[in-house]
TrEMBL record:
Location of the RDD domain: 4-130
Membrane found in the keyword field: yes
Membrane topology recorded in Swiss-Prot or TrEMBL: Multi-pass membrane protein
Alphabetic keyword roster: Cell membrane, Membrane, Transmembrane, Transmembrane helix
Organism, as annotated: Virgibacillus subterraneus
Localisation per UniProt entry: Cell membrane
InterPro entries cross-referenced by the UniProt entry: Pra-immunoreactive, RDD
Protein name: Uncharacterized membrane protein YckC, RDD family
Transmembrane portions of the chain: 12-32, 44-67, 94-117
Coiled coil: none
Pfam families attached to this UniProt entry: RDD
Length: 136
């Protein structure tokens, strides 16, 4: 029986990812601009890098990103195999970012309730990407 990752672990993993990634990207901004700041005018660049990270790294690292690795959870396809680039593009770009923008964030709230109350703990972006998050 597969063990699905709940809302708490997923939230902690996302928090760890954002924190660690912000420090790394902030460091790169410092190297190139002399400022250690991710101001609103640089927010689009940060979001682009973070989205690319969420799309590429799980494919290269068998479903893990830094926060998920720390929390011992991973992203898998619904058939149990490792995610492909098409899964992560649909999941992160379309299911999370694009639909989040179009619905003005309402999809995020709905996804939270889906992860809390659904048996398989899949959110909107998981369904669109054909993925789920499992506990190891």
């Amino acid at each position: 029986m597969e063990s699905y990752a709940g809302f708490g672990k997923r939230l902690i993993a996302r928090f760890l990812d954002v924190t660690i990634f912000s420090i790394l990207i902030g460091g790169l901004f410092y190297i190139f601009t002399g400022e250690y700041s991710i101001a609103l005018n640089k927010g689009l660049i940060w979001d682009l890098f973070y989205t690319l990270y969420l799309i590429v790294i799980p494919v290269l690292w068998a479903g893990y990103i830094i926060g998920k690795r720390i929390c011992n959870i991973k992203l898998k396809r619904t058939d149990g195999d490792n995610v492909k680039l098409s899964n992560t593009i649909l999941r992160e770009f379309v299911g999370f970012h694009l639909i989040g923008i179009v619905t003005l964030g309402i999809s995020l709230v709905v996804s939270i309730f889906m992860v809390i109350f659904r048996e398989d703990k899949r959110a909107i972006h998981d369904i669109i990407g054909g993925t789920y998050v499992s506990e190891n």
